[in-house]
Amino acid sequence: MSAVAALITTAVRIGPRRFWIAVTGIALSVLLVLTIAAAFRSASLGVTAYIDQPGADLWVAPAGTDNLVRSSAILPASYADSLRAVAGVAAADPIVRAFVSVSTRHDGARRRFTMYGVGYRAPDGLGGPPALAEGRPPVGRREVAIDRSAARQSGVGLGDTIWVSGRAARIVGLTSGTNLVVTQFLFANLSTTNAATGYGGQASFIIVRVAPERDPRVLAREIAARFPDLTVLDRQSFLANSRREAGAGYLTLLALVDALGMGVSAVVVALLVHGLIEDHRTEFAILLALGAATAPLVRAVAWHGARLIGVSAVLGVALAFGLGALLDRVHPVIPVSFGARDVALLLAVLGGTGVAAAVVPVLRLRKIDPLDAFRP
Amino acid sequence: MTALSLVGVSKTRGAGAHAVRALHEVSLAIEPGEIVLLEGPSGAGKTTLLAVAAGLLTPEAGDTRVDEVSLASLSPAQRRRHRAQRIGFVFQRSNLLGGLTVRENVLLAAALGGLSRAAAARETDVLLTRLGLAPLADRSPRALSGGEEQRVAVARALAHSPALVLADEPTGSLDGASGLAVATALADTARCRGAAVLIATHDARLGPIGTRRVRITDGRLEAS
């Protein structure tokens, strides 16, 4: 930076109080945007991790059902036997999926909440936990594995007893990648969920593992042709449908809140740049009268705007990390985890909106009359 | 070599019913080292004349030359550069930049005038010392008295060794003693550095420091 540019930049800097008030406003917007994005991603990850687990090549459901998240139709579990007889099917297992009421006793206090229960042919059947953070899969009727964040939230752990629809069960496993934010997964033997839901002999889905030599899509078409009452979807299609449903309804709302957060940031940047120019109007006029070009003045304003955005972004990300750590302690089912890609994207959007918001105020700078310097 | 030459300069300010003939065929020449006092009542055209001399206003008629360069022949960017390099300003209020220190204010004018970092620093230190401002160099202008501020403004006006200094009521915001001291400092320092000075003023006490006085009334110039 030349001596002139450096001195001009110093001469028209933003006052510290105003700077930090603006930084706080923008940083809180950044925190809001990151938190919402992280929560949505976590919910989406929960759906993805469960469906995308090895062996779940095809998802068979009653006709018209095409996703895991929003469906309630059931089909006879005996379809699993029929499907096992189809050439190219390596394995076929039913799962029952239903919201179940769970209660815990912790330090003498009783807590009740709802979980996304999945009954499967434990411990080795298809459709079990996608990953175990601790412990093992459930085996007997009185065993369950539950999402680890839900366990922490409820103050229970391995070996503790919980009540699933009023029936006692021991926690033998803690699962990961199974937090949908609005609820969390609970895995149990089919007999346990059947008892809890009354779905005896029924299934929500039949999961099929396809023999290695067969193309899952081709086999899906063959099964669909042979069983016209069923919908057969390969993993990718089922995953896409479930992601769509996971975001339906509140994805638009989240996007709107995120957009509002960015909008607030842009307005704060615009206000501050506008204020910077108005507050330093006399200084700009003096500089122009002394022979300064407009370009270094614009660059000085841009530098202060960029500094504002940069500091705000760093503070906002730091706050998001802090909030994530805090929530992990006090409310672990609300994850605030994000990566470098999220931050880079946020910076790009914030920078873009900041530049857009500063255009009009900067154009006003070009209209400042150096003769103003002569006015007492 | 003439520092400032105005020949038949006319300028109208405002438009339509509000148009006022601020300068009417004004001619004036100032040689290097001259201190010219431009006197006249408020609204007579003093500031307009300074603005035309600075190239901040373009006259409808006549020729303005600063350091032998006709401003009309320059593009706006060239005129700005010429102003930065060949003209210094002292305004009625000091108009120092509050975000910079005393030293940085002077340094900025020197840098705008095209001096290298080293030369700008050297000139700044020389002027601050000459004007008794060296002990205040690192202070904010906000911490200075009115007289001190105007002395810094004088240093800023001369930092890039201009051919011409234009001063608009430089003592207008000061008491009598401070005003005279500032004007004297301006005149002495400018003369010493070979710069011509045109001072627009109401202040009759500045008479002794001028080498010449001219009077402007209703946009017309007359020798005093």
Query: Biggest sheet of chain B: strands side by side, in what order?
Result: 6-7-8-3-9-10
Strand order of the largest sheet of chain A: 3-4-9-6-8-7
Q: How would you describe the shape of chain B?
A: globular
Give a short account of the largest sheet of chain B.
Answer: 6 strands, mixed
Per DSSP, the total helix count of chain A is 11
Straight-line distance between termini of chain B: 24 Å
Poorly predicted runs of chain A: none
Beta-strand percent range of chain A: 15-25%
Basic shape of chain A: elongated
Structural class of chain A: alpha+beta
Largest sheet composition of chain A: 6 strands, mixed, barrel
User: How many β-strand runs of chain B?
Assistant: 10
The number of strands of chain A is 12
Report on the structure:
The complex is a heterodimer of chains A (376) and B (224). The radius of gyration of chain A is 29 Å and the shape is elongated. Chain A has helices at 3-11, 16-51, 79-84, 148-154, 190-197, 216-226, 235-247, 250-279, 281-290, 294-330, 340-365, and strands at 58-62, 75-76, 89-106, 109-120, 132-135, 143-147, 161-164, 167-175, 185-189, 202-203, 205-210, 230-234. Chain A is α+β, with helices and mostly antiparallel strands and 376 residues long. In chain A, helix 1 crosses helix 10 (294-330), helix 2 (16-51) packs antiparallel against helix 8 (250-279) and helix 8 runs parallel beside helix 11. Chain B has 224 residues and is α/β, with parallel strands linked by helices. Chain B is 33% helix and 26% strand. Chain B has a six-stranded mixed β-sheet, sandwiched between helices. A four-stranded antiparallel β-sheet of chain B has the order 2-1-4-5, covered by helices on one side. Classes of the chains: A alpha+beta (376), B alpha/beta (224). At the A-B interface, helix 1 and helix 9 of A face helix 1, helix 2 and helix 3 of B.
